[in-house]
Amino acid sequence: MNGIVIASANGAIGLEAAVDILRHGGSALDAVIAGARLVEANPEDHTVGYSGLPNLFGEVELDASVMDGRGLRAGSVGALKGYQDAADLARHVMDELPHVLIAGEGAKRLAAEIGMEPRDLLTPEAKAIWQERLDQPATAPNGHQTYLRKVREIVREAATDPEAARGEEIPHGTVNFIARDRTGDIACAVSTSGWAWKYPGRMGDSPVIGAGNYADNRWGAAACTGRGEMAQRCCTAHSVVTFMRFGMSLDEALTTAMTDLAHLDDPYKSEMNIVALDKEGNPGAASSSKDKTYVVMTEEMPAPEERPRLHVPIPGVG
Ligand code: ASP
After folding, report:
1. pLDDT per residue over 104-116, tens digit each?
2. Ligand 1 atom nearest residue 273's Cα
3. What's the gap in Å between 25 CA and the centre of ligand 1?
4. Most CB atoms within 10 A, among 32, 138, 158, 252?
5. Is ligand 1 within 6 A of the CB of residue 46?
6. CATH label, 4-120+170-311, candidates 3.60.20.30, 3.40.50.1820, 3.40.50.1000, 3.40.50.1970
7. Rounded to an integer, what distance in angstroms lies between the CA atom of residue 2 and that of residue 122?
8. Which of 79, 72, 68 lies closest to 102, judged by CA?
9. Is the pTM of this model over 0.70?
């Protein structure tokens, strides 16, 4: 059986490298990390890794996770500063520590210990997008208070209505990769700089196993992008896999997990997207927004293919 890799649309840039690993008999885990690394290094993607949009105080904080569907091994990092390869670091957490999730200073320490190259993740372009939203200087009389009030308003606005906060650039995003290799092993990697202007230390669904990422060889895998707090509260990635476990088709599982989100009491309810693979390696994806796509590439395909996502509206979310 030949391998397959799927990703959120912004993962197209890493898909061929990921499939190439499968073509050479490599593992699903190596494939998803290779794909994620290329997105994390892409200076044009302001939602993941290097050049990600920063938090309230202008610091880029990365979240990422990996899960190996054989034996349900998992690792993740949250609020990582100063290192770009967040998904690879999550793998080191999984392989080298008796833990699953390492955040903040601990994540940074581990990156240094394993010899990762530190990097200033904030690019001038990302800083300009961040700065543009802050029309009150921090140095005004009582400037600190004014600044804090303003950025909190911005956070609220960005969480309520992504379109309104968008300007020229989207305020949030994530990359999802799911692969199934020739041996039938499934793995998933998720990486993000999270919501721009987020409160420092805020972690979304991406580093939370079961929320933004879940993989189990026996039933399939799922990964999310969108408002992480919603996926955290509904354990969305785990739900999709569990629904397949209990007999639903991939599309039914995606639809049911999306529909569950409608029950959240959440004034900031907004877009949610899921990509998923069933245990046979069939791909699928859903979005609460119309006309969203994801990308698919098998070992037989010469190039990635962009496919439409199932549209599952969430009442109250545009
Ligand atoms: N899920 C990410 C987070 O909440 C952001 C996104 O995918 O848009 O941090």
Report:
1. 999 999 999 999 9
2. 7
3. 32
4. 32
5. no
6. 3.60.20.30
7. 39
8. 79
9. yes
